[in-house]
Design brief:
Keywords: Cytoplasm, Developmental protein, Differentiation, Neurogenesis. With 554 residues, this protein is an all-alpha fold. The chain has 27 helices and no strands. 50% of the residues are buried.
């Protein structure tokens, strides 16, 4: 499979595509808290579920979508956790929410016990071990009360889990009576091993239980011909995808991708297409999801949706989001999606049209992100975009604040331009559409909010703008236009002033490369000091000089 060639300014991977993390970054300005459950489980060595709270928090609500467990207000979440921490009695409820909430409480207790054990705080270790036993017993009891009949395998693991809980409580109680440090040290190793085994049993039990619940949801979607039932069940499945890659793998393995594409192929469920597609995009962050998509001819289904104007814009935008996910250059397994090439021309044409007609920034972002990733996927895509006058479409959109209003969107546009700029024919289109002026503007991209995500997006825009300029400046007409517009002055400022590039090394390297390309065409545009420090030395020497500068010398 062909990839866009590099030309020395930076590696093609370096200027980045837009995978799952990228997609949800602009949709979740102001994300939720850290991965508490995942951290707790991983710290005790359980290879189970990592729950990145708010990782996929979307700003556009979906009908029937429940407020996700990890997306609620932090004070409200703390109150709920406090209630769970202090109540061990069983009660009715949704099995999935019960598992996730109790799972978080137990994993937190395991992590805290590990911390207290490291500090030799034996009284706390014992009291927390007793409390852990209560929570484990409550989870088993509560889940048994609300779930279907338990399997033999689950019953065996439940028994092993409770035995280890009892063993942990007993051994930590004995440790309270021991004063000999040498004996206590050997017992500490025993407690640590028991804690680790207990954690493994807990992870196995949780995985089995969640798998059963996922199976039930998938069966319900697969068998349903009722729009309300399908909507509710798909919403539940979407909520589960937000719990991280391990649950997405379970969903893919248990037929979730097959069931969702079945929904997307039934006209009676058209109003549910956006929700089903959004769920598919989340599942396809894992290899199993992409493989399942290919097995059910998912790419062909996406192409049909994108090229059918009778579908709503929201539906086509979510189909674009799935395309963006499955073509992400950051996920190595997406590069083997052979079926994509068969439908690529149809998909690229539809995405350019969606960019041109987008009624909102969100729709334009999803469509342009898919195009950006496709330009990494195969070089033919760049040639197709040139034929479709995509440069004009993208550059015109830059002056439309309704479509292009964030650095995340400009990141997608400049990614496409950077990859297209390897084609010689691209330069004339850029000049004709006043593209050099827009690229200069991207070199001055600044964050509005100062959030880490937005700052990082601005750095990517600056870096890719410099890369694009360097590539396009092979054409003397582009180089002269860049000099006329004072691009060299801006590049020098970015090189010499760390604050202008947020001290980004990637931006610095790209700007030095672009400056050297322009200087080769128009050396008269540089002062002697700039030439001697930024152009004449080896690139690494200029890089070291600029990276050590405290502030601009200009």
């Amino acid at each position: 499979m062909r990839r866009p060639p590099g030309n020395g300014e930076t590696a093609s991977k370096g200027i980045g595509g837009w995978g799952l993390w990228g997609r949800h970054e602009p949709r979740r300005l102001g994300c939720a808290g850290p991965d508490r459950c995942g951290q707790a489980l991983l710290q005790i060595g359980i290879n189970m579920m990592a729950l990145p709270g708010g990782r996929h928090l979307d700003s556009i609500p979906m009908s029937g979508q429940r407020l996700h467990l990890m997306q609620v207000d932090s004070v409200q979440r703390w109150m709920e956790d406090l209630k769970l921490m202090t109540e061990c009695g069983p009660g009715p409820g949704d099995p999935l929410q019960l598992l996730l909430k109790r799972g978080w409480v137990i994993s937190t207790e395991l992590r805290r016990i590990g911390q207290k054990l490291a500090q030799d705080r034996w009284a706390r270790v014992h009291s927390m071990s007793v409390r852990l036993t209560c929570h484990a017993r409550s989870m088993v009891s509560e889940y048994s009360a609300v779930s279907r009949s338990s399997s033999q395998e689950m019953g065996q693991i439940e028994k092993l889990l409770m035995e280890k809980c009892s063993e942990l409580s007993a051994v930590t109680e004995r440790c309270l009576q021991v004063e000999n440090e040498h004996v206590l040290k050997s017992m500490k190793a025993c407690v640590s091993e028991t804690l680790s085994t207990l954690g493994q049993h807990f992870g196995q039990l949780l995985e089995l239980a969640l798998t059963r619940e996922v199976q039930a949801l998938v069966r319900k979607i697969d068998a349903s011909d009722n729009i309300y039932t399908t909507e509710s069940t798909t919403g539940n499945l979407f909520s589960l995808t937000q719990e991280g890659a391990p649950l997405c793998r379970i969903i893919a393995k248990e037929g979730g991708v097959v069931a969702l594409f079945k929904v997307c192929r039934q006209d009676s469920f058209r109003c549910l297409y956006p929700q089903a597609l959004r769920t598919l995009a989340s599942i396809c962050c894992v290899e199993e999801g992409v493989h399942q998509l290919e097995k059910v001819d998912g790419v062909l289904c996406l192409a049909d949706i994108l090229t059918d104007d009778s579908h709503s814009e929201a539906t086509r935008a979510e189909a674009a989001a799935v395309v963006a996910q499955v073509t992400s250059p950051h996920l190595p397994f997406t590069q083997h999606l052979s079926s994509f090439l068969e439908s690529m021309e149809e998909i690229v044409t539809a995405l350019v049209k969606l960019c041109q007609e987008a009624s909102s920034g969100e729709v334009f972002l999803l469509a342009s992100a898919a195009l950006a990733n496709i330009t990494f996927f195969d070089t033919m895509a760049c040639e197709m975009l040139l034929q479709l006058n995509a440069i004009r479409v993208l550059l015109e959109a830059c002056s439309d604040k309704q479509r292009v209003d964030t650095p995340y969107t400009r990141d997608q546009i400049v990614t496409i331009l950077a990859n297209m700029s390897v084609l010689e024919q691209c330069a004339s289109d850029i000049i004709q559409e006043n593209g050099v002026q827009l690229i200069l503007g991207m070199l001055s991209e600044k964050p509005r909010s100062g959030t880490p995500a937005e700052v990082a997006a601005c750095e990517r825009v600056q870096q890719k703008a410099a890369v694009t300029l360097a590539r396009l400046s092979r054409d003397p007409d582009v180089a002269r236009e860049a000099v006329r517009l004072s691009c060299m002055s801006r590049l020098i400022e970015l090189c010499r002033s760390p604050s202008e590039r947020n001290s980004s090394d990637a931006v610095l390297v790209a700007c030095l490369a672009a400056l050297r390309r322009l200087a080769g065409v128009c050396p008269e545009g540089l002062q002697d000091s700039d030439f001697q420090q930024l152009v004449q030395p080896r690139l690494v020497d200029s890089f070291l000089l600029c990276s050590n500068m405290e502030e601009s010398f200009v």
